[in-house]
Each structure stands twice: as structure tokens, then as C-alpha cells.
């Protein structure tokens, strides 16, 4: 069987039956009264609806008719849906076309002259009206034929390219050697997986006197004073040009060709870049697939193997307690909650930590990396997600996996909780003891003793060879589909396209769930198909409600032909924004940063409608500074958020309010003993500690501030008074009211 075939695809190209559950029936309205009257009735006689219903039921039950329908692509499901629509059309129309009226009349009244089977041509005509895909299946198969992708890039096929694969683990110097070739060439393109990496090469290139432009989805920087394009460009892989000729091209992290969502961009770069030399950097697991793909283009692959420049060892003991942290340690978590929890625990121990996770703006990540790397900064611990696996130069002595379970999205778009892969573990572990850092030897371990054996097992497994490369339908292909299916929604078009598509065995169609999510979000907004397609390819985080509603709002403004000006955008995001007071505020600011990214991304596709990119970029830099301030004080924000949760009076019943200090005391004890929130078990209290009020102890621990205490005092008084009034009916004492509390309500 074909490896990685798309649904509906095959290596041989043999067409399989389509998934008809994707065919959404169109509505065909019954015919109203005709200006010419009922011509069929005048030529024959009016039809008896009861007789017609009986004839139609006979037609439906005929096995020969069902078999004939199947020959025309109507499986049982489509046949049933088409029949229901056909029957409603016949029975609800005021007048029918003459030909069908005469046939029905003959079947009803002229015994033997016509047979119920004679309705089939009319039924089939109706079925093709409600399921237009039946009429053009062969055309759709041709349009969605994704076999032989190398032929999509005639410019690259017109030259004989030299391909060099720099293979090795992290910190082996493979990318360094490829970049040296890039810098010494007359012209070159660097294609990276992250904006941060594109920025790094952009800055490195210009610092070494090689003029280099920057091109990412959200940013274009031309360094030549006359506005001409420089001979070198650093870009994110999705943005590379497959028509511009270069002397040298570098494609970084080539193993991402297998990525379920983004793999298509590496496939496009690998097959399409017009460069005399193409340098690939990545894991050995991609060598066989790359060699196989380029065999079909007649290009040979030269493999250069690299070994790690500095040693790395897996320790025989877990960290077990944060008391055992040392300078240069990096704790890797796979959820934001763990990041917050661990940061807070570290702060309780009187240590400072830097924090890096995926949704932080690039500027904030760089600022946190700089703080951690700075030998003069007291911050010596890093708490991070796997976002550190690429794009940041960090001086790490030891990687500590807080957990080995990572949420992921599978090929079907479903969320899974599974141990990290060998490839992921090697990528993260490889950040310890880098050649360019002050720690020349790296160490790796886990937080929990029970995870250590699993980590060793994962790291010792061979990395599975990559079997298939990603593909993605183009805007032109979707437009041709829409030409044949003009009344089908974009989301449904994509489903049908993937179902009809045929791919060679070394390819798969990427997961298009994010695209479909956006398509469904803006479906009701009137846009041309090409504009709709562009909006749907905009990279958004669908977990962020504000970002999703912004895509909708931007599309709505666009459809009204109302330019999204800087003044409008400031009002929309409620600028000016202030430093965050708690974690929720910080997350809200991150979402606003994503919205500004979305604006900038769209501004390069629709410059007239998103005219103020430079002003928005300045605003985004200002926002990045505000977020940096929040992340710098993250433990303070976590502390306040915890205190707010701890002291949420809404959940405290009126009866217990009078004993509130005791409730708080038990909650605080529970929190201190909760591993999930990361508190150390409290020391046995001394006699003097027992005498202290709980409030003063909470203030001492940093869970309460003096201002919060004053505010709490006011709230307690207000709420107690309010509840007292609520519970006391006229003429009844509150004491009596409390006595009645346990009795069932009279009503």
C-alpha cells in the first residue's frame, strides 16, 4: 500500500469510490404557478397526487433502479437523499415540465404504455442538480491529481542542481557549514522554520558585510538604500520564492517535511528552489526520503555527516526536588500551567528564573534568553517549553524534563497525550552544553525518578526514517474546483478535494483543519474565493477567542471595503494597554500581539485595505515591551493570581464567612501541600508562628499584600451585611432566619 496516501489517493492512481458523506445536497425549489398555466395538464389531464406518490414509491423500491443509480455514482445514501428531494419537488410543484408531466400521466392512466422505470432520466437529472459533483467527477479527479509534484516547478527542473545534505544531531555544526557556503555565495536564500531563525541569519549576514533582506509572513525588510532587493534573503520557509534564481539555497530543519500541518512548505522548497547548490540541514532520518524524492528529478544527494561537538550525558539520578537546582539548569515543561507552577516554586526558594514558551512574542523570548545567558544577571535558571528546541542560543548546563508527556495533534486533527518522540527528546536534550556556550558538557535528566528510565529508553531508540513529504492544494486548484462546484462552501470544497486527491507513495496531503476552521468562521461573509482563500491561510491560534473574532472582524471590514486604519485598530484593541496585573492579563496581551501579527500578515497581501503596517509594527514593539515587563515579573503575577483564586469569596457560603480565617487557613495548608501548585510542605509551626494571625502569615509568604487585606476587610463587611439583609425577612430576626436555614423551602 502507498505510504502516507491522502484519503482518496493511491500510489497507482486507481480511482476509488469517493466519500459521499462529503457531498452536501443543494436545495432545488418546487416550481410555482407558471404564467403560461399548466401546459402538461392541458395536453393530458391534471395529475392525481396520491397516484403519483404511489408511483414514486414503486420507483424507489425497484432494485434495478437502485443498481442503475449506483452505476451513475449514487450509492445508497445519495440515492435516498436524491429520491426524497425528487419526490418533494414532484409533489410540491404547482406545475411540472411538460415531458415529466406526460410520463407520469402515461404511467398512471395508460396501462402498459409507460413503465415506472421511465422516470429514471428525470430522477438522474434532478440528482445531478442537487449533487453537482456527479456531473464533473472526472474533471475533479484531474484537478486534484497531486502525483509527480516535481513537475509543478519548471524553473527548478530547467537547471541541474547540486544537493548537499548536512546530517547530524543538534550542536554538530551542520547549519554553520551550510551558512558559510550561503555567505560566500554571490546570491543566496536561507529558509528557516521560525521567524527567530530568519532574523538571526538576517542579522548575522548583514553584520558580516553581506547585504541580506528579511522576508517573513508578517515582515519585509529591504536593506539596500534604493529599495532594490539584496542578493541574499533570509526567510521563513513558507515565504521562499521558487522563481528567483540563487547561487546557494539553505533549507534548515529538513526533517520538518513530515510535519502534518507545515510539511508542504519544505516539500515546495526542496523541489522548487532555483539554486545551483541546495544545502539541506537536519536529522539523518530524512536522508532516505530526500534521496528518493530527488531521484525522480534526476538529482543526486551528497550526504555529509556531522557528530556532536560537545559531549552530553544522561544522568543516573533524577532532580526530585527543586532544592537541587544549580546555575545553568533548564526545566522543560509541556504546559503553561506547569511553567507557572515551577516558576513560583523556584521564586519561593529565593531564586530567579527566566521563562520562555511558544506564545510569547519573539522579542520577549530573546529578552528572556539574554537575561538567562548574562553572567552578570542573578537569573541562573530557565523554565521553558519545547519552544527552546529551535531558534534560541542558550547557555544551558543541564536539561531537566519536568514531564515526558506532551499534548499533540495527530494526522486526523485529534488531540493526544503521549510521551515525546525520540526526535523531540534529542532536539530538546541537545540544547545542553552547546559549543558556543560557557558549558562545554551537557547533562540531561528528569524531575521525577520514575520518568528517568523512560527518558533513557526514548533517547536510545533509533529515530524512525521519515516516510512521506507533505503537500497542500494551491489557490488555483481550489478555484478550479469552485468553478465546477460554485455553490459549495470553501470548507466543503477542501474536504472534497482531499477525498478526490491522488498522491504518489512518498507524499501525503497535509492536515487542513486550521484552514477549514477559518473557512467556517468567515463563511457567511461575502468575499471572492481568492480573498477568502488568503484569509483562511492566515496563521492564527484557534485557541485564542480574541484572535478568532479579529479574523472575523477583519474579513467583515474588508467585505465592506472599509480600510482597517491605524486609528481603527487602536480603538479595536483598546490601546493604550497597561502592564499585566495577573496571568490572565498577560495572556490577553499575548492575544493582542497575535492580532497585530495577523494585521501585518494581511497587510502584505491586501496593502490597500491594511494600509498602516509600519505604524502597527511600532505599536507591536511597544506592546512587546509591555509583555516583557509582565514576563519579567511573572512570579509576582502568578502570586497575585493564586491569591485571587485563594481568596475568591464567591465560593464561601454565608455561614462560613464568620469563620473565614479558619477556611483560609485550611485552604492555604492544602495549597502548600499540593504538588501540582508546587508548594513545599510547610515547616512545623513554632509556638510564635501559631500565635501569629493567618493574615500576617499570608502577607509574610507573599500571598497577600497590605492593600489586598484592606480591600478584603471591606468586601467581608459588605458581603456579610448584604447576606444578613437577604436572609432576614421583615419582622424576623436574622437569628431566627439562621435557625430556619435547614428546613425545606415552603415553595
TrEMBL record:
It catalyses: ATP + H2O = ADP + phosphate + H(+). The keyword Lipoprotein does not apply. GO terms for cellular component: mitochondrial degradosome; mitochondrial nucleoid. Coiled coil: none annotated. Residues 1-12 have a biased composition (Gly residues). It is an enzyme of class 3 (hydrolase). Residues 314-482 form the Helicase C-terminal domain. Its EC number is 3.6.4.13. Its cofactor is Mg(2+); Mn(2+). The keyword Oxidoreductase does not apply. Residues 1-41, 657-694, 715-747 are annotated as: Disordered. Homodimer; in free form. Component of the mitochondrial degradosome (mtEXO) complex which is a heteropentamer containing 2 copies of SUPV3L1 and 3 copies of PNPT1. As part of mitochondrial degradosome complex, interacts with GRSF1 in a RNA-dependent manner; the interaction enhances the activity of the complex. Interacts with LAMTOR5/HBXIP, WRN and BLM. Major helicase player in mitochondrial RNA metabolism. Component of the mitochondrial degradosome (mtEXO) complex, that degrades 3' overhang double-stranded RNA with a 3'-to-5' directionality in an ATP-dependent manner. Involved in the degradation of non-coding mitochondrial transcripts (MT-ncRNA) and tRNA-like molecules. ATPase and ATP-dependent multisubstrate helicase, able to unwind double-stranded (ds) DNA and RNA, and RNA/DNA heteroduplexes in the 5'-to-3' direction. This is ATP-dependent RNA helicase SUPV3L1, mitochondrial.
